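--- STAGE predict ---
source: upstream dedup step, 1 unique chain passed
mode: sequence only
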Amino acid sequence: SRWGAPAVPANFDLYKHIAHEILTGSGDPQADVELKGMLQRLVKEMSLTPEVYRNDLHVFVRHLEVAHFNTLRFKAKAEGWNDLAAKTATALLRYVGDVPADKAFFDAGIACKEAGFLNMAFVFLNRYLDLSEAMEDPDASNIIENSDFVNTDIPYDFVLPDKHHISENQREEVRDWVLALSMDQQVEQSLSMRTCGTCGNETYEAALTCHSCKTQSDMCMITGYPIPVGERTVLKGTDPPVFARKEDWNRFVHRFGVCPWTNTAQAPSY
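--- STAGE serialize ---
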């Protein structure tokens, strides 16, 4: 990112390759920070004439959001904010395909487990086990059970990774934990829900679009979660505007003093 990334179409395949290598890697916080900076400058330049770059711009925006939420997930974990780390890892499941599916579900499951969101951890880690088994037997990949994710915005039509991103020892630990939890009658084995502010129906808590009435919520740029009605704040200096949930924004800004998206000095919002 030090040398810039001009919006030259001949370079786009190289930029996508760099993004892919970092986003599918073992998880280097500094690499995500560098990638985010590079992609922010690239997307800003491309957004001046979006009609010229429409298809590529969509790809780079997704890569940028993944790099952004990865950096926040690492920061939240370092601060001991397990709830925020779990939400960010859960939101990253929206980008499965841009990130390896086995790694995404493993990371979300472990983060939810550490935050005490055991129902979410069970569903995500169970999905991770299904995917890792399908990776061993590609012929079985078309019979992976998807009922848990039908009314969510988590993709299910994606290419399986061609290599495991999680070690065999970690897989065995997950398998034992999921088996033990499956026998715990006190843990719901389903995803958490929220009440849609428009239609009043229950929908998956991390979905930006209500599956029932299709109302879209603004995305919080701190957690990746939908912002509840009346709890939105606009991040200063963003064009197009970017939003956050006030509670999460204040928590972050109180601790770090900067906007997590623009990295400029900011104050809490009341």
